[in-house]
1D-myo-inositol 2-acetamido-2-deoxy-alpha-D-glucopyranoside deacetylase (Micromonospora antibiotica), 335 residues
Amino acid sequence: MTVVTTLPDRRLLLVHAHPDDESIGTGSTMAHYAADGAHVTLVTCTLGEEGEIHRPELAQLAAAEADQLGGFRIGELAAACAALGVTDHRFLGGAGRYRDSGMMGLATNEHPRAFWAADLDVAAGQLLDVIREVRPQVMVTYDPNGFYGHPDHIQAHRVTMRAHELAAAEGIAPAKVYWTALPRSVLEAGMSHFTESSDNPFAGIDSVDELPFGTPDDQIAARIDATDQHAAKEAAMRAHGTQIPANSWLYAIAGNFGAEFMGVEFFTLAVGEPGPAGGPNGWESDLFAGIDTTSSGSSAGRPDPAAGQPVAAARRPEQASPVGGGPASAMAGPR
């Protein structure tokens, strides 16, 4: 990989657990900022070796067969990044350094390379190397529960937050850290829409309170309206064909709500000061809101004076019951 020495004024770093997480959770946001000239860096922590395979002709790639799914998903991720316009992608510690841990409680959690069991400071140090090079002003990852309880998502959160602490000690911490979120009002609307559907991802769920994710609307900090990038997000999701069936309910709802479903993404603010509100409900409409990006320098290796501080009110308690499948994990998306 060629190390870039001159970067745009705005730099965004996203940390995701598996290939396809970036497209489902933050694809429109990534495409929005890439198209607007920001430098978007994606760090993926595993190859997603334990994912299900929705292409029958590739069933032999499964972990229980040839165990080559991870290698195949490298190509899927490359195609997804191309669709999103993201040119800077890295695997944490290098491709294959950490393995997909599988769902919580499975024997795969104990694999010698399982990301769930990774040494926190070692993994955070590897992410710190990326921070030193790119000097992002904004980082994005999951909340303490990994959004829906997957061990690799939880570990990605821990590694990101530890790397931020280490970067702060060097005076190069990103000014803001956001966690991906889904407002309860959006979930409630989705549950209502699917009530009579034969392909209902909420089947068996009577209340949004039963889901392991969903953020009260008053805790949402930012709403990124990237509806002009909804086609890029859908193309990126389709690139992950082993994980997202071509007839997935995700595409069905996209057909009904189109740009709004694919193009609007939400975040809570974990570190830093909220910027000026530019969207509904007093939410930020720009992850860089309130950051003077011109003063932080555009060359890698130059110290960034904007070292963010935690926002205690934004932190959510870690939820105790991880998800192993069913409608909740389906709503959260494939691995």
Notes: DSSP finds nine helices and seven strands in the chain. The chain has a mean pLDDT of 85. The radius of gyration is 19 Å.
